[in-house]
Design a protein that fits this description.
The protein is of the alpha/beta class. It is built from seven helices and seven strands. The protein starts with 10 loop residues before the first strand and ends with a helix. It is found in: Cytoplasm.
Length: 216
């Protein structure tokens, strides 16, 4: 049995972009193409702060697109544990209740860790743990349409509430906090999951890193 201390550090890929940009689709496409390796996906949304101490009305007023909405310290702590081949218990967020659920997801370490979320390149401590940083760049009009479809179909939201939130927080926070992180990206993927060439190039690069790791 190989001692964990002698194992090569897992490869970390950060994938970001605005809400509805297609970053989840890109992450899933990479995940699907690398299935012969051991992979896991960390979603930044899992690390929204626990708001059990707040009323439901108060939770509705929270700006969920601001860095303060996330427990980034916990995300970094758990990522570091996974990089040291230690298992973690990931929170599960309840989008309907706007707080963490009572459930957790036990996650064992893997060779490749994909971190996906709107602000994963915002914190330098998190960026420094990444081997490849990806920004999925998609026009505002396409992103709002995708967000409307997702929030109504998957999260039980009304059209009015989705549009109101988008104009009040999602769009301004994107331009203030998300779009500026494009400068840190190693790879920029226009149009998200539709860009098969960029995804294939990203997968090839990850495979090269993994091959080098196995040869060491």
């Amino acid at each position: 049995m190989i001692n964990d201390s002698n194992r090569k550090r897992p490869v970390v890929i950060g994938v970001t972009g605005g809400s509805g940009s297609g970053k989840t689709t890109v992450s899933q496409a990479v995940f699907d193409q690398l299935q012969r390796h051991s992979l896991l996906m960390l979603q930044e949304d899992s690390y929204y702060k626990d708001q059990a101490n707040m009323s439901f009305k108060e939770r509705l007023q929270v700006n969920y697109d601001h860095p303060d909405a996330f427990d980034t310290d916990l995300l970094i702590s758990q990522l570091k544990a996974l990089l040291n081949w230690k298992s973690v218990d990931i929170p599960i967020y309840d989008y309907t209740a706007h707080t963490r659920s009572s459930q957790i997801k036990h996650q064992t370490p893997r060779e490749v860790i994909i971190i996906e979320g709107i602000l994963v390149l915002n914190d330098p401590r998190l960026r420094d743990l990444m081997d490849i940083k990806v920004f999925v760049d998609t026009d505002d009009d396409i992103r709002i349409i995708r967000r409307i479809q997702r929030d109504i179909q998957q999260r039980g939201r009304s059209l009015e509430s989705v549009i109101k939130q988008y104009l009040k927080t999602v769009k301004p926070m994107y331009h203030q906090f998300v779009e500026p992180t494009k400068r840190y990206a190693d790879i920029i993927i226009p149009e998200g999951g539709q860009n098969k060439v960029a995804i294939d190039l990203l997968v090839t690069k990850i495979r090269d890193i993994l091959r080098c790791n196995h040869e060491l």
